[in-house]
Design goal:
Elements: H1 20-46, H2 51-70, H3 79-87, H4 95-104, H5 113-126, H6 130-146, H7 155-167, H8 172-175, H9 188-193, H10 197-218, H11 225-241, H12 271-292, H13 299-315
Keywords: Membrane, Transmembrane, Transmembrane helix
Protein name: DUF4439 domain-containing protein
């Protein structure tokens, strides 16, 4: 007998219903997904704010306060520069992070640009995160250049006083005397442990700035006011290069200081401006060294950074204040 197919209108197009067990598996899977999403949300809401995030967001808040409340001279520190500096610290706080940051207490907003720079200097000095420390140091250097700290807080004055008190003048390379074992001098192991490349590069940049400053001073009459400025800058750089943290580096091979350097372009036309340029290069090298150094090794770097940033802008005020020296 010939088999016939039922008419198409009587053939169901629906798939057979899945067994009840499949629905139960799907329901369990959806429940697990929902639980995981809720758990992640609760963790994000209640987990403590890591110290790195707190420091980073605190730095962003400091810059936001500078932009909103201090209104620095836009001809020196335009808002676009401040915006770039704020962006350098990464994304803004999430609502949860903002809540935790507020619970920690942010303190009063900065009262001046120098106060704000001091707060970022503290981040640069203490943060175990090298990238964060370098960014904070870079912004602090920019603000120091734009508005130097009060005279009493400027270590340049302390440097000059130390030099006048008899800590010596001239290149540290020329004055370094090898010490015998047991006399308290640096051993070969001590020197080797101090030969961190970024710090050596900073010392070399400082030595080049000192050499350029001495060369500029030689072109200025002894009784000219500018000669006194150059002598003071030389003394400051000499004092930095005689820091106890720097002395072991002078034994590194190759040595970071030299008897002479190539003078920068434009030196013959404007020696003072050329000195300012070498000091800016030193600032950038110091910022890089901050990022490559542990917190306990940053004191002399930040002191040198303050000095070079302030002095460079003083000697070459027409040069725009850099937004992120050493981080551009």
């Amino acid at each position: 007998m010939e088999q016939t197919r039922p008419p198409e209108e009587f053939v169901s197009s629906r798939s057979p219903a899945p067994p009840a067990s499949a629905w139960r598996v799907l329901a369990v899977a959806l429940t697990l997904v929902l639980v995981l999403v809720l758990a992640a949300g609760l963790w994000a809401h209640w987990r403590p704010l890591p110290d790195d995030d707190a420091a980073r967001l605190g730095a962003r808040a400091t810059i936001a306060s500078v932009r909103a409340d201090l209104d620095p001279d836009p001809s020196v520190l335009p808002d676009a520069v401040l915006a770039d500096q704020e962006a350098a610290f990464g994304p803004a706080a999430t609502p949860s992070q903002a809540r935790h940051l507020e619970a920690r207490g942010t303190g009063a907003p900065p009262s001046s640009l120098a106060d704000a720079a001091a707060r970022l200097e503290d981040v640069a000095r203490t943060s175990p995160n090298g990238e964060l420390a370098a960014t904070a140091a870079s912004v602090a250097a920019s603000w120091w250049a734009a508005e130097p700290p009060p005279a009493g807080a400027d270590p340049t004055a302390r440097r000059t006083e130390e030099s006048e008190a008899g800590l010596g003048a001239g290149s540290p390379a020329a004055s370094k005397v090898p010490t015998e074992e047991g006399d308290g001098g640096d051993t070969d192991d001590d020197a080797a442990s101090s030969c961190e490349p970024a710090q050596l590069a900073a010392v070399t940049a400082l030595d080049r700035a000192r050499f350029t400053t001495e060369a500029a001073a030689a072109r200025i009459p002894a009784d000219a006011a500018q000669r006194g400025t150059m002598d003071a800058v030389t003394d400051t750089l000499d004092a930095t290069l005689r820091e106890p943290a720097v002395t072991p580096m002078l034994s590194c091979d190759p040595a970071p200081v030299a008897g002479g350097h190539v003078l920068p372009a434009g030196f013959a036309e404007d020696p003072t401006r050329a000195v300012g340029g070498t000091l800016r290069e030193a600032s950038a090298a110091l910022v890089s060294a901050v990022g490559a150094s542990s917190p306990e090794d940053r004191d002399w770097l930040l002191t040198g950074l303050l000095e070079t940033a302030v002095t460079a802008q003083h000697l070459d005020p027409e040069h725009p204040v850099p937004a992120l020296p050493g981080r551009d």
